[in-house]
Design brief:
Layout: H1 9-15, H2 19-31, E1 35-38, H3 44-54, E2 60-63, H4 73-86, E3 89-96, H5 100-108, E4 120-123, H6 130-139, E5 145-149, H7 161-172, E6 178-182, E7 204-207, H8 226-232, E8 237-240, H9 242-245, H10 250-272
Parallel strand pairs: 1-2, 1-8, 2-3, 3-4, 4-5, 5-6, 6-7, 7-8
The chain binds 6-sulfanyluridine-5'-phosphate (S5P).
Length: 276
């Protein structure tokens, strides 16, 4: 069996036991889209308008609900309606980073009640495996999936080397709930012990820091192209924020969403069926 990233999304969906990972892979295949749009705006109306525009082109919408100034629970109802209308999953980019007991409360409760609507969320591995146990206690019964931040896109970040390998080991110990990583390249076999059977593992790699027109911003963000990310680095989903929603008119936002969807998909096709 070829390594996971050389198989099609449909083949991988069949084998995935986690409901969120399976649904994401099926959605990617159905829509021919490995694009996740990150909608980092602060007003409810802008948030919903952008999602309605980009919805047809994405497999996943990534949110930071804590930046929305006029947040109320009706926003979540509208978001769920858009998710059904346009057939995409939801990923609240919460980057949990506390002890298990605290993250379980942050995930289930408070104003945002993230676990009740977000199919996928993410966490920093820095507190150790207790963070996964805490989040799993809430998310597993709901069929949710967790991504660990094994690497980051920013200049000078500390998620490298043994930290990254330890993140992968932590994921391997919780394969039913940890569905993959925020990372810049594939993690296959990283951190494996001698003799440990890891050939069949299929962690999804979701990758931010994607842009076609600029190389970075003034605060350390670094961009690569969909081709570099998907074809050369073997990642599964491209995460694009300002490259799409930051473009001004609704028509331009739609155009950019379609452009990134196409670029991401062509890169994937080149990966699974390379022309000789
Ligand atoms: O390492 C990371 C991890 C994440 S989740 N680097 C990132 O940029 N992100 C998120 O991806 C970040 O919080 C933001 O929501 C998005 C990138 O946005 P852009 O506007 O730079 O494309």
């Amino acid at each position: 069996m070829p390594s996971a990233h050389l198989q099609t999304y449909a083949q991988r969906a069949e084998k995935h036991a986690n409901p969120a990972a399976k649904a994401l892979l099926e959605t990617i295949e159905r829509k021919s889209s490995n694009l996740c749009v990150s909608v980092d705006v602060t007003k409810k109306a802008d948030f919903l308008r952008i999602i309605d525009i980009v919805g047809p082109y994405v497999c996943l919408v990534k949110t930071h609900v804590d930046i929305i100034e006029d947040f109320d629970s009706s926003l979540i109802d509208r978001l769920k309606e858009l998710s059904a209308k346009h057939d995409f999953l939801i990923f609240e980019d919460r980057k949990f980073a506390d002890i298990g007991n605290t993250v379980a409360l942050q995930y289930s409760s408070g104003v945002h009640k993230i676990a009740s609507w977000s199919h996928i969320t993410n966490a920093h591995p820095v507190p150790g495996p207790g963070i996964v146990t805490g989040l799993a206690s809430v998310g597993t019964p709901l069929g949710r999936g967790l991504l660990l931040l094994a690497e980051m896109s920013t200049k000078g970040n500390l998620a490298t080397g043994t930290y990254t390998a330890d993140a992968v080991r932590m994921a391997r110990a919780h394969r039913d709930f940890v569905i993959g990583f925020i990372a810049m390249h594939r993690m296959d076999g990283i951190g494996a012990q001698a003799g440990e059977a890891v050939e069949d593992e299929d962690f999804l790699i979701l990758t931010p820091g994607v842009g076609l027109d600029v190389k970075g911003d003034s605060m350390g963000q670094q961009y690569r192209t969909p081709r570099e990310v998907v074809l050369e680095s073997g990642c599964d989903v491209i995460i694009v924020g300002r490259g799409i929603y930051g473009k001004g008119s609704d028509a331009e936002v739609r155009e950019q969403a379609e452009r990134y969807r196409r670029e991401g998909w062509v890169a994937y096709e080149g990966r699974v069926s390379p022309r000789s």
